[in-house]
Amino acid sequence: MHLKSLEYLTDLTELRLQGNKLSTVPWTAFQDTPVLKILDLKHNRLDVLPEHALKYLPNLTYLDLSSNQLTVISRDVFYNWPVYQKTQQPERRMEAIANAVLALHANPWICDCRLRGFVQFIKSVSPPVILMNSYLTCSSPKFRAGKFFHEVELSSCMKPLTSSFDSNVTVHEGLNATLTCLVQASPSPTVWWTYTQKFLRAFNVSTTHMSEDTIKVELVIPSAQLVDEGNYTCTAANFLGNTATTIALKVHSPRMVAFASTASEESVYIDVRIAKQTVYGITLEWYAVTENPGETWYTLHFGKYEDSKKEMIYIGPGINTYSVNDLLPATKYEVCVTMRNQLPRKEQCIVFVTGSDISELEQREKLIHIIIIVCAMVLAVPAGMYACTTETRFNCMEKCADLCRKNRKGKKNLRGGNKENTFDSLPTGSEEGLCHRDSSEDKKRPRAHEDKETPNKQKLEHRNSADLY
């Protein structure tokens, strides 16, 4: 409907626009129709009625706004209506004022504080203003749905106020943790929970109405684990503003004793290696000799290499493997295994880089290339091959020295040998020479025997050194 659509219609007395799917009406256009008496707008899509809507309809005797989409309107809409103003003037009450019929039913009224003034107006209406249907009903909120206006008492609007029964909650590991947040607000606020952990999980949230303006919001954390510890924030907001309260969750593990690590624990050597590679992930494996293996907990520190704060994953007794999936391509990662909550040491960490993403299905087994730091050495290991950080039968110094000797020997042989023996020429599925454990026969064999190898053996060593470096 255009703003000028009623121009030059000064003698118009009746306007019926029902069922025209109107979502707005230019109410100021009625300045051009001062004698309009009947305005029928039922069965449209009007959802807003501005405060000045009836200001230019001084002689209106019938207004039908039924069956629209009105949810909240101000009582000032009618307080600004000249017809209603006449009824409120004592000096004009003796005058004969024509009745004015209002039809406002069949709208989805939201009965909260925003409708308080309008409900009060409806309750106070009396002739000459007459309601076609005085039984206006609430559509929402749910606890008021279906109630008549004269059955509800609406309070004033207020900004949310949040509180909690207990700001510090402690729960045993494996049990459900329930965090409770009380919210006072009008109208009903939107409430959500946030917490500081990087690893987010979907928790159940229930809402209970304690009274007209008070709700109880409970966050249930099923089978709480150590990684669920942290500060949980309950935030409530409505059109007046927002507020929040924080609850600290502590998860107590009966199998973990909260005391300082002993010197023996701090000196425990952990043998860490990548046991398996998949298309988009790895499986980590570790070994450690401890005094009480059945009570020993480990902590995995995992994240991007450049991140200062890594995600911590707690591993219970009897477990020595962990799989990491959904790795990003062409990304450098670091994973460390420590005792309990100890800070990781360099020898307890593995650094690896994932390869570029390859769309061809047949080439996906080549997706991940691993670069692993072993003592002071760097091994470049192609996809499909196992990569170890230590070998159980040699200590770190002996192994590094042995590898360095082979490295120098391999470089000399490479200079005069076949240049095609490169990293890229390695067979993808090979595990030979990298992760095998020394057999008892190898252990019994004297080291001097290595210097007396046959030329064929020297050629094999040449290939192994080229494969490694």
From TrEMBL:
Membrane-spanning intervals of the chain: 367-387
Chain spans, region Disordered: 414-469
Stretches with biased composition (Basic and acidic residues): 433-469
Record domain Ig-like: where: 160-252
UniProt entry keywords in alphabetical sequence: Disulfide bond, Glycoprotein, Immunoglobulin domain, Leucine-rich repeat, Membrane, Repeat, Signal, Transmembrane, Transmembrane helix
Protein name per the record: Leucine rich repeat, Ig-like and transmembrane domains 2
Gene coding for it: LRIT2
